[in-house]
Design brief:
By secondary structure, the chain is α+β, with helices and mostly antiparallel strands. Helix content is 54%, strand content 14%. It has one domain (20-98): Arc Repressor Mutant, subunit A (Orthogonal Bundle), CATH 1.10.10. It has a three-stranded antiparallel beta sheet.
Length: 99
């Protein structure tokens, strides 16, 4: 029997929440209180480079982050949508901790 998640993946209709893995959530939360950070700052989260690049691709595809170059540096920031999602994740995190 195929689960609901498997059906949505097979149909190509992956919902946003299903695409937010641990790395994506960590990166969104890390960006929330910052205007813009270099891509290399995500190493503070103890994520491997492959994980960071894969998660960044997912976040960009979902229009949650944007990237620009300054010299050789890749600078990452939240989009308006990304800020909203990160704030909701923080609210959920705070609620779970308090209750």
């Amino acid at each position: 029997m195929i689960s609901t998640i498997e059906k949505t993946i097979v149909c190509g209709e992956i919902k946003l929440i299903e695409r937010l893995a641990e790395a994506e959530v960590k990166m969104l939360m890390h960006l929330l209180d910052k205007v813009e950070i270099p891509l290399t700052d995500f190493t503070e989260l103890h994520l491997g480079y492959g994980t960071v690049y894969r998660a960044l691709g997912n976040l960009k595809e979902m229009n949650l982050v944007k990237e620009r170059s300054r010299g050789i540096a890749r600078l990452i920031s939240l989009t308006e949508k990304g800020t909203y999602v990160a704030e909701k994740l923080r609210e959920l995190d705070d609620y779970i901790i308090k209750n």
